[in-house]
Amino acid sequence: MTLLAFIIGVVFLAAAVFFVVGLHLMRTPRTARRGNLISAGGMITAVGATLVYAITLSHSHSLGWIALTSGVIVGGTFGVVRSRSVKMTDIPQLVSLFNAVGGGAAAAIAFADFLGRDVSAGLTPSTSVPVVLDVIIGSVSLSGSLIAAGKLQGVIPGQPIQFPGARVVNVVVVLVALGAGGAMIAQPTSWPMLLVVLVASLLFGVLMVLPIGGADAPVVVSLLNAFTGLAVAMAGFVIDNQSMIIAGALVGAAGTILTLQMAKAMNRSVLTIMLGGFGTGDSGSVALGATVTANVREVTADDVGLQLAYARHVIIVPGFGLAASQAQHEVAGLAKLLTDHGIDVKYAIHPVAGRMPGHMNVLLAEANVPYSQMLQLEEANPAFDTCDVALVVGANDVTNPAARRPGNAVSGMPILDVDHATSVVVVKRSMSPGYAGIPNELFSAPQTGMLFDDAKKALGDITLAVKQYVTT
Questions:
Q1: Options 3.90.78.10, 3.90.550.10, 3.40.50.1220, 3.30.420.40; which CATH number does 301-470 get?
Q2: pLDDT on residue 66
Q3: Catalytic: 340?
Q4: Which of 397, 417, 453, 461 is catalytic?
């Protein structure tokens, strides 16, 4: 081993340490930003070391390293620009696209490495097995993540897309991929068999995600994130890069744990989610106040302002509607106004509120909401028993009392016990159902008042009303 190779190896291990520390800090909202920066520093270190190593081993005028540095510049510029301009509601789509890029890159590494080898004498299983697994997992992540991003963006319908015999086709495609992969491992002497693995895996990724409804799309994004991590780890074995192995294993493990936690929060198994057919997607085109039933009580912003001004304990329940209207600063301003006048204000955050885990935490942190005011499900539910006013902003399925009864789409799902509060106010554009596709029984509860309006405008009006009452 040359001195340069030893130094590069040490740098890769340092990058892996950054990844581990960064992931550890991402466990809580309070340290998540620092963890993200440390992880990004690890990635910059790894990419920089790779560039130095590649350039040192090649001639300065070679097209190879020019293409390499150009790729870093183009990819880095796109990542920075897109990440800074993306709306909070589109973060899950961006994450899904990153999954696709990661999985595709990992599969490309394995395929390119195989094409560059002399396979006339065959390959050992320690090489051929990671190559096949990398192509399979990376390709599924690539095509599946693109379909998931399309569903979340609305380019592809959020409803489950199924056709007769779909599961039989899935089984056939999987058998083809595994059969071709097995043949590749047994006799790794030509690339056409690996191409069959690639095509079959890409097709399976599409067929796997199409039948999954909008309600489960965030869970699938998390699962595909785990796939991407495994693909990167396999690519690390293929090219003998310890940094990729460690980073991929961390992402795979974190994505798997997150997927299981999300499935648990929805009271569904991962297998049930993968079988598809749940949820209808987001129905955001319904007019304000549409489909109002006779037993629903409407309130005005002035009514809500009066309740909040004379409350002692207020819990705000944010949901996707808050993110969709970019009303995080308005809700933070309302909460600060109440807090400044001696009213206890907390936020109750469900694990699957919004479009992905942590979505609401990040949204509120962007508006400088103190972390001490954010309560997770287990902390929030006991607090509703002594809550004077629960203000629900855009949340739907995660507050539906129907989850406590069997026989419906959300049965058994852990929910926020909003209906235990003395008074409930729901800010929503309409009575349309959430992703689960069933009506929310909370909306017609006797203690619930419905304020039909855009979240940003409604919160602004409520804030003005509260100011009138607290200053008189």
A1: 3.40.50.1220
A2: 66
A3: no
A4: 397
